[in-house]
């Protein structure tokens, strides 16, 4: 990738972040009356549901706080605005989000009245990261305490994440999902300076081991979403389930982690593994990555399997740019360019800003919304932020 290409990409990503993405959420998401954020936003930003979902609240806290800490060269007024926006969600979660047992409810109404029990441990992961980033931005000790509280609840709950709300009878088919170890890999970096380093190292090491030992099947060259404790995958819909986006997101988290340790062998290994879900998951007829697949090509239990989804492509951009940055491999460069071309052709909405979240297989918007119960202010801005950082580093090293 030559220097001018890198510069052009950086300019495109920067313009999108600051002119299309951030302004959309600044205008439409804050609830200045009751605190927290609206995430159910139509194409033009109109709020179509005022319920608030704890994991999206934590994600948005993280993003606004991250912008404060990331953009050193921006003026003070912008940083103060983002800090106020981060505080809006952090204080809402602190004051309204927790059950008497200390866990975060999954959903609350606009005023903070709990609606859905705290069955989803990912609420704690994003709250821990959000409070930690807000602490770095504000220096306020209560945010540090809240980050530690969420982390402590993760430690307690992780062996049985959904607790009494688990539907499966695990003793008969004790499946392990990749999502928790994926989040452990990310969180082990996000909580630096918050949780003692030996504990974070152990957290990341255990997650890395599970992913390599159980979910990555070298013989079949496949990354399986759910496996049995011995790494096998039963011949049913659950055991054959593939999620290209999750695989690529997990792999770039791992790649970033092992690169921090200077492990060149693992860098090359992970970069090679990235090619498996990409080659299997790409839709050769219409372009873009399928949301879900069955290893044997049967129908999945997921009715949205052939949709093209925003976060999958945002994470794929991260995966292949990072792999190319570390390896210089032309295959990863080609994949990054392919995903970049498809993504910028289909997802951005030039009229109202932000990205469509859900496209049909042909690449047309299947839903008009820009946010909802699952889509918020997180995957897209995080992708743009890290890609801009890596492009900056690549530009400095290019000739």
Shape annotation: globular
Percent of residues in beta strands? 5-15%
| Number of DSSP E strands | 13
CATH architecture grouping of the largest domain: Alpha/alpha barrel
Structural class: mainly alpha
How is the biggest beta sheet arranged? 3 strands, antiparallel
CATH topology of the largest domain: Glycosyltransferase
Order of helices and strands: HEEEHHEEHHEHHEEEEHHEEHHEH
Number of domains: 2
The pLDDT mean sits at 96
- Low-confidence stretches are none
- In whole angstroms, how far apart are the ends? 10 Å
DSSP helical segment count: 12
Strand order of the largest sheet: 3-4-5
Percent range for helical residues?
Answer: 40-55%
Computed Rg: 20 Å
So what's the CATH class of the largest domain?
Mainly Alpha
Plain-language structure description:
α2 runs antiparallel to α3 and α9 (264-281) packs antiparallel against α10. It is globular and about 55 Å long. The strands form 6 sheets. Strands 3-4-5 form a 3-stranded antiparallel beta sheet. The chain has a two-stranded antiparallel sheet with strand order 1-2. It has 2 domains: 1-27 and 173-399, Alpha/alpha barrel (Glycosyltransferase); 30-167, Glycosyltransferase (Alpha/alpha barrel). The chain has 399 residues and is mainly α. A hairpin with a 5-residue loop joins β1 and β2. It is 55% helix and 7% strand. It has helices at 3-28, 54-70, 76-96, 122-138, 141-157, 178-190, 197-215, 244-260, 264-281, 310-327, 330-346, 379-397, and strands at residues 40-41, 47-49, 52-53, 107-108, 114-116, 176-177, 216-217, 222-223, 226-227, 241-242, 293-294, 308-309, 358-359. The model has no long low-confidence stretch (mean pLDDT 96).
